[in-house]
Each structure stands twice: as C-alpha cells, then as structure tokens.
Amino acid sequence: MRMNEPAIRLQVDAEDGNARAGILFTRRGEIETPVFMPVGTAGSVKGIRFEELEDQDLDARIILGNTYHLWLRPGIETIRAGGGLHRFIGWDRPLLTDSGGFQVWSLGALRKISEEGIQFRSHVDGSLQFLSPEVSMEVQAALGSDIVMVFDECAPGQAPAEEARQSMELTARWARRSRERFDSLQQEGADAGRKPACGLSGRQALFGIVQGAAHLDLRRESLRRTMEIEFDGYAIGGLSVGEEKKVMWGVVGEIAPLMPASRPRYLMGVGTPEDLLEGVSRGVDMFDCVLPTRNGRTGQAFTSRGKLNIKNARWTRDTRPLDESCRCSVCRRHSRAYLRHLYLTGEMLASILLTHHNLAFFLDTMRGVRQSIRSGYFPTFRREFTERLSANGE
Amino acid sequence: MRMNEPAIRLQVDAEDGNARAGILFTRRGEIETPVFMPVGTAGSVKGIRFEELEDQDLDARIILGNTYHLWLRPGIETIRAGGGLHRFIGWDRPLLTDSGGFQVWSLGALRKISEEGIQFRSHVDGSLQFLSPEVSMEVQAALGSDIVMVFDECAPGQAPAEEARQSMELTARWARRSRERFDSLQQEGADAGRKPACGLSGRQALFGIVQGAAHLDLRRESLRRTMEIEFDGYAIGGLSVGEEKKVMWGVVGEIAPLMPASRPRYLMGVGTPEDLLEGVSRGVDMFDCVLPTRNGRTGQAFTSRGKLNIKNARWTRDTRPLDESCRCSVCRRHSRAYLRHLYLTGEMLASILLTHHNLAFFLDTMRGVRQSIRSGYFPTFRREFTERLSANGE
Asked: Contacts of residue A81 in chain B, CB cutoff 8 Å?
C-alpha cells in the first residue's frame, strides 16, 4: 500500500460552464463522471442481476449499498465472513456506502439523538440499536466499500435557522469524529475491501457531507468546516427531502461550485432525469436515487418523452417499445402491450424489465451528458433533452 | 406451405433400453430430446428473462404456455393484435400450449362438465366462461403455438374404474373434435404462428393425450383410440395428480413403449429430477413441470446432492455455491449465504437467482441424459445421478 497516494483521484477532462466531465479513478476501476449510481439497498439492485449491471446495456460503474440495511441484516459478521461486501454479493466494481444516518432518520422509530450518536429501534426486529460516527465507520470498514460517507445528521428541508444550525454543527463535529475513526481503521487494516491499484493508496475513500437545510449561510459554513477536515470527495446532503425544487437548486447552485474542483462532488439522493441535468449544470459529478428501480416496480417507465404508466389501458394493444428512442434490451424485444400484461398479471418479469429499462434510460442519459460536455454542446443537449421530456408524446 | 409434409419430425439417433435420444425438428428450430420444457404460464417463465432462457447456461429450446391463463388474460384479441404469442412475448423459439383443460380442472371454480364442454368461472374475475375442444383449438390457433394439445378431461388419480372410463371416453370424443376443428383452422389459416421450414409443413402440430387414471386397461384403450385418430405426438396426461409414484410409473412403463416410435412422447406435468430419469428410462421424450420455477420462488434449490432449503440457518455464513458441481452463472458467482440473505430480506433477486439455478440444473440434467444415451451409458448415468441425489450431502 502506498499510504501517501490518494484513495481516489478525479481527472477532469472537459468543462462547459459549471458542468464537467472526467474520470474518477478508484481501486476497483474507473468511473466516468458525471455518473448515476444505481441503489443496491440490501446488497441487491432490486430485480437486476449483476451480469446485467455489467453488460453494456447498463454498464453501471459503481453502485450504492445502504449501511443501515446491511448492518441490521445480514449483519457485519456475516458479511465479514463472506470477505466483505464485494465478495459477499459478488460485485467487483466500485461500491459506495452511505453512513446509515439518513435511513435512521427516515426509517428508525423512536430516535433519540445525543452528542454521542443516535439510538433507535430497528425496523427489522424492533431491537434497540445505536449508531454513531465511530460505529458507522466501523461498519463501513467491515463492508469494505470503496467510498465511505461520514455519519451526518439530516435536518428537515424546511427546518428553521436555529434547528438547522444545531444540526449542521452536530454534523460538523460528527464529521471530525468520522474522519478520526476512519483513519485509525485504515491504519488497523479493518477495511475488508482493500485492493492495490496503480497510483492509488488501495484504501477506502471518505466523503464529507454538507448540511444546513435551505439556509445558504449555514450551507456555506458547513462547506467551510467540512473542507477544513479534508475529504476525498464532498457531498451535498439533506436535499430532496420535501423542500421545493427551487430551494434545492439554490443550495446546489451556491455550494457545488465552491467545492474543491479537484474532488468529486456528490448530490445525495437525487433524482429525476431532469434533476440529473440540473445538477450537472451546477457542477455535480455523482448522483444516486431509487427512482429508476422503485418506479420500475410500481409500473412507471422513464422515457425520452416523459414518464409512462404501464398500467394505462391505452397500451393494451400497443406494439411499440416503452421508448422508441431507447436501444436497451427491453425496448429491443418487448412491447408496451406485453409489459402491461405482465404488470397486470402480477408477473415478476414486469418489475425486472421496467427496472432494467429505467436504469438503462438513466445511465444512457448520463452517457449523453458526458459526451455533450466533452464535445462542448451540453447546453444544447440539455435543452433538447428537456424539450423532448415535456413533449409528453407517449 | 407444403401441406403434405409433417408439422414436426422426430429423428431418433440413439436408444438404450426404452430410453431414446434424438432431435425434434419444428418450424421454429430443433429440439434435442429428451427435453425438459420450462413453464411460461402467462407468457413469462416466472422471474426469468428470455435472454437468459436463450443463453448457453439454460439454452431452453422450447417453453410451455398455458392456454387457460393467456385466454383469460390478456385475452386472444390482444395476443392476436400482437401478432400471436411468439411475437407478443418476444420469443422466437418453439412454444407448446396446453389445452386449458387441466387448469379448468385445477383452478376453475364451479365447473360444469357436459358433452359439449366445460362451463366454469374465471379465477381472474369470476366471469362465466365456456371451454370446449373447438374453443381450445381456436384459442391455440390464435396463440400460434408450435405444438397444440387436444382438449381432454382429466380424471382424479384415484378415480374408480367407471368414473375413469367415462372420463377417458369423453376425452376420446373430444380428441376427435379437437382434431377436426384443428384441421379446419389450419385450412382457414387461423394459425398465428405459421412459419415456413425446410421439410416441414409450417403448420402447428397437434398432440393427442392418453387418459384413464390408474387403470391400465383404460390407458391401453385410450392409447388405441388416440392413435386411431392420428396425431403428431402423443402425451400421457392425468398423472402426477395425487396418485402414488409407483402407480404413475406403472402407467408410464406400460403406455410409453406402446406409443408410435416415430412420434414424440410427452409426459405432462412431470416432475422432479429423479422423475425425469424414470420417465426417460421408460421411453418418454418430453417433460414439463413448474417445480424448478415454483420452488425457486419459495427458496428451494435443486442440486446434484438433493434439495436445499435456502432459508436454513446453517447457510448463514456458507460461502459455497448452491451446488458445487454446477457451472451455472448463479453458482459461479453467488454463495448460499448471499442467497439466504436475499431470500430472508424479501429481495426479488432471491427468486430470480434460485429459479435460474433450478432451471439450469433441470436442463443440464437433461443434457447429461441425452449424452449418456447417445454414448450408451444411460443406466450408469442414471444410477450415479440417483445415488448422488440421495447422498443428501448439503
């Protein structure tokens, strides 16, 4: 291991306004940015086999795992026995894990927040659990993910200034504790995913998270305090949690360009295809969201002409693919009529195929975004993409 | 179309006792026999994409569709609008459809059987429906399956002689009506799946079904009456419906060898891996069963060492594949521990992967069977396979 080398390295190849395209080098391979990361909550991108994620149709270069879910079930000892998360699930490309904080915030019943951490009841078995910066770092080291997120506290989108400040300050203290425990775990060799890689340390990367709700002054202060600690990448958290879109873009537009240009910028939990382009135009490099997978399971397809509800009776005998502009394996093979039939009959294949198409659409959109930035026509790409979406020409 | 050519042609290449291996030529490609046919009830082999069925891991040469399910939902008009079942579902390899009779028997509430046909209530919406030899042939013509089954009446496995005789005689009369309506539909060009093929008529094939419950005299009479009508293949129905195994093998062992050697022999709805070998040894060429798919969804894997329940706590940290002798994509990539985790977490991927492995095991077993017959060591293959299965060395 070369401890003085960085854990990851971002190479920015092209810029167009605030938008930028490049390559993120990780110990498990290269990730072209801007990138969309499919969510593999409990160690599985729901309904999708890993072979499909790797195939050229999707070619997902990095997926996300949820520390909260994996920690509660199957638990760290089981994953450790399996050789870390990559080996346990059978995925050798990069993995990012969140800190668990957001799930505790959204799923954990009877939360009790203290300076030390968060006590809560497991949504699985009701047992009392305790999560802190230290525990989160220990769990993520045992998972051996390639990118680790600091343990943060997420304030509600409409939190008033004082509440948002306290939350942000707690996040800042927790970020420092996360960094310290993370560093000692790396020294101790606790990282289950360590892997030599040319020009990189082979260690996990750690990302800081900017909080502060909708208050730009708090967001700027959070960014400054996070940057002081120094991280391998910087994320914007606490958005897309109920606030208005213009508030979200106000924060992202203010904060993303202030982040270190040499480090990846990650907008957590965002978003729709339109959101991806909005984020990219403000300088974001990384996104994750459950929309393509979750909506696939509820019968909603994302297409170049907007959303399509497969349950709609108008597709009963429609022999067209979900998206006539899409070249994914689902659109090459199956009609709306067949997909509708599968969905109404309760066939698992409906979820499988809609999810596959949705991921293909998201990942393909990002391919288009990268190419347009590299070729200098991102604004045109963005305008045409948005116009097509709203054409609603199902 | 060359109307004097057969719809399908069986070429028997090797025999070993009553077991035989060959190639069944159909208008949509060749099927090596003996063959196991995965069941695609409502136009989908549950949890499996068609690309997987085609890939070398499975390489399923023929799948089965259920006339009853497809007729009720999405309905014939929708499938016709989609260009027949092959085009509607996106599968260009051979399809066999059953007649609907068995599903009415097992699913239809409030059945009323008359000479004309069967009146029943749909399990989908409770509507009153009527199925007869003529309707079944019309539906199967609209589906355009490559192999059509006559509309039969299935007596319970333990039906007494008089009840079984009446059922068998009704089946014989319905077989003749099926043949007549089928022939006129072919003349009328109602077959949605017609396809030119070298040396074949390009038409649908029609199989007769032998009934008679556990009564060998009735079975022999049923066979004689079915053969009088003349079909492209012959099936044994009404087995694996609650009778004892030795009764089933008594019937198959008596009837299969009496069937015309030049036509495929199909044992309907059977069975376990052991059953496939038992059937083959008695001269059966074709099998179908929901076991690999259904059990995959309930957490049961078929392996070379017997069944494995993935829910079992002993697999919690077991890094071995489901079957150490299996080379399918699931066994190459995933551990029992991971599959157990997926199952317990309710992840769809558990069903997908277990079903894939189970189908791979069934189809691979049949590859082994064919090879052993061709190479003259089927009895050895059968003995070793059975010994391994009962080793139960999970």
From this structure: 317, 319, 337
